[in-house]
Amino acid sequence: MNSVARIPANEHGINPREIDKRARSILKALTRAGYEAYLVGGGVRDLMLGFHPKDFDIATSATPEQVKQVLPSTRIIGRRFRLAHVHFGRDYYEVATFRAPHDKTGGGKTGEHGRIIHDNVYGTVVEDAYRRDFSINAFFYDLQTGEVLDFVGAKEDLQKRQLRMIGDPVVRYREDPVRMLRAIRFAAKLDLSIEPASEVPIHHFGFLLDNIAPARLFDEALKIFHGGKAIKTLQLLRQYKLLQRLFPAAERGLQEEEKQLAEKPDEGSFHKLVYAALQNTDRRIRKNLPVTPAFLFAVMLWKQVCEAAKEYQEQGNPALQSMHLAASDAFSEQVKYLSVPRRFSNMTREIWTLQGLFNFKNQRRVLNFLEHRRFRAAYDFMCLRAASGETTSDNCDWWTLVQEVDMDEKIRMCQRAAPGKHKNKKRTRQKRRISE
Ligand code: ATP
Ligand code: MG
């Protein structure tokens, strides 16, 4: 268990200059003070696979307090998992003390289904390697020697470009079912296969995600859908029957369409909406444009909300109120799976309730709507609905153009689109003047 393979620089190919300067300065400060310190996790993995890492995590033999002594800008966070955040202004780097793997007889504690509840026991570098999830997430880069340390036989997995769970996959997924979502996320993002023994349990263990706190699943869902590979991840999530653990309404909606359109399931409008939206998200991430979770919820819950709103209307409720009632129903189901912070659910509601306004083309309403703070999000959503065939593409074209032209042309467009309305208004105004 304790044998270590040392991969020299000419083999792993990491150039120290690819490592963030500040992360290097933390590693140097800790080793100078006599502690062990390595770059670990996604940073090393991504560099070895030829990707550009998004962050650099550090593991050390120093306790959080010792890290703070060496690097005074450190803030210690967390009660259960105490971590050191070394600050550089608003940016910070996570420095974690080596942790022992979870062990029932030690400080770790498991709950029902074998889930880990506490595992805040410090350990050695070897133990720290073994408590990690996938072998390629357990490489330790030593800046001093330039070597990558491999305690878990990860080199072979790297060569095969595969994800292999360290230890017994069944036990490890039971300990922390979120590892199944991580497997799917990494497989999609880094184009890796999942080694068979690590893959099989994922097909059967979806139910374990029901025990995970909705707030954690929200964080994980964002990493999944805002990681730049949303389409591929969605396909994998569905393949492993895990989408229903995150967005049950979306999975139901997609399945209903598939039943109805057994011949050509991908021609369903909800299917097209979801795919067009995720493609759009992936494109925005590639271009470094902002993305909001509110949009993800707007898409995933749309079919359910439309159907429920229609029913409320049939029961005699006004259109807008029906939409609000349907939205409340949809969110009360959704938050049982993953939490939806209020600011996002409010924005999603606005995106939905504003959809009706795209049908009104009279000048006053159009000019007001263009100024609305949620116009852009609502417009993007309407165009996706048009692309999915749910509404006409004329509306998307019209609203695209009206944003681009000058004020005079905006007014002319409104007059052409809603001529009757303008005439009527003029007439009412004249009538009013006569009666005054
Ligand atoms: P990325 O940051 O690119 O999403 P990552 O692998 O760095 O990927 P983090 O969540 O930043 O993911 O975690 C850092 C490291 O901590 C992982 O590489 C892994 O070694 C370990 N780790 C994270 N989550 C778990 C988990 N649920 N179980 C075991 N080890 C984990
Ligand atoms: Mg990371």
Structural account:
The protein is 55% helix and 10% strand. Residues 104-108 and 422-436 have low confidence and may be disordered. It is built from 23 helices and 12 strands. The longest helix has 18 residues, at 269-286. The chain is elongated. It has a domain at 1-159: Beta Polymerase, domain 2 (2-Layer Sandwich). It has 436 residues and is an alpha+beta fold. The chain binds adenosine-5'-triphosphate and magnesium ion.
Radius of gyration: 27 Å
What's the average pLDDT?
Answer: 91
- Classify the beta-strand content into a percent band: 5-15%
Q: Compute the number of helices.
A: 23
Write the CATH fold name of the domain at 1-159: Beta Polymerase, domain 2
Spatial gap, N to C terminus: 95 Å
Shape: elongated
Q: Which strand order does the major sheet show?
A: 1-10-9-2-3-6-5-4
What compounds sit in this structure?
A: adenosine-5'-triphosphate, magnesium ion
Helix content range:
55-70%
The CATH homologous superfamily name of the domain at 1-159 equals Beta Polymerase, domain 2
Task: Label the CATH architecture of the domain at 1-159.
Answer: 2-Layer Sandwich
Structural class: alpha+beta
The CATH first-level class of the domain at 1-159 comes to Alpha Beta
